[in-house]
Amino acid sequence: MTVTPAPALTVGFDLDMTLIDSRPGIHACYRALAERTGTFIDADLAITRLGPPLAEELVNWFPAEQVAAMADLYREMYPSIAIAATPAMAGAREAMDAVRDAGGRTMVVTAKYEPNAKLHLDHLGIAPDVVVGDLWAERKAEALREYGAAVYVGDHVGDVRGARTAGALSVAVVTGPCDGDELRAAGADVVLDDLSAFPAWLAAYREAPRA
Fold it and tell me: In this structure, what DSSP letter does residue 59 have?
């Protein structure tokens, strides 16, 4: 009798404010974009609502017909301004290592422009097995389903919705713009203070009896 091995555990992670503290780099990039275009952008405000796609922020500062061009300009400026200024979040590397130590696969699914997401990860020496960009909220489920992710970790209610749409367990961290109550109300299965708590949670999750 041939025994089919169980599929490897696949855990997805969001990027901004989950694996990386993108506030310093994004703040600097918004200020540079404001200077370049002569348009007022409240960078202090913008970095309090990270998570949704870039266009959803730019529409607050530019006429709708200019948003696509401004997004292209922002993404062009971003690597030279934002990458070096952006640190990893506490526990990010350890969380990824915990999945690998468990024999699992890691993936990053983010609304960020994928080439810039990869630049961040390369700069910080964080190497997931898969990186998928340009997906937000429920659309994140497309990638999570494709790669069979059982768990998705994020900081925003949009990440919770993506996990639930994919049928994945939603693990939320309160390191982004949404507090624990918001994340639970959105349907998060687990809420952690930050990724430093993830390895212990993962160990307990793997030991728990499966239904």
Answer: T
Residue type for position 199 = P
SS3 string, 65-96, reads HHHHHHHHHHHHHHHHHHCCCCCECCCHHHHH
CB contact at 8 A, 26 and 51: no
First CA to last CA distance, the chain? 24
Residue 173's SS3 state is strand
Largest CA distance in the chain: 71
Spans in the chain with pLDDT lower than 50: 1, 3-4, 211
Note whether 43 and 32 are within 8 A (CB).
Answer: no
What pLDDT sits at residue 208? 83
Measured between alpha carbons, how far is 154 from 178 in angstroms, rounded to an integer? 10
- pLDDT tens digits, 47-71: 999 999 999 999 999 999 999 999 9
For the record, the structure tokens of 199 come out as 């390895």
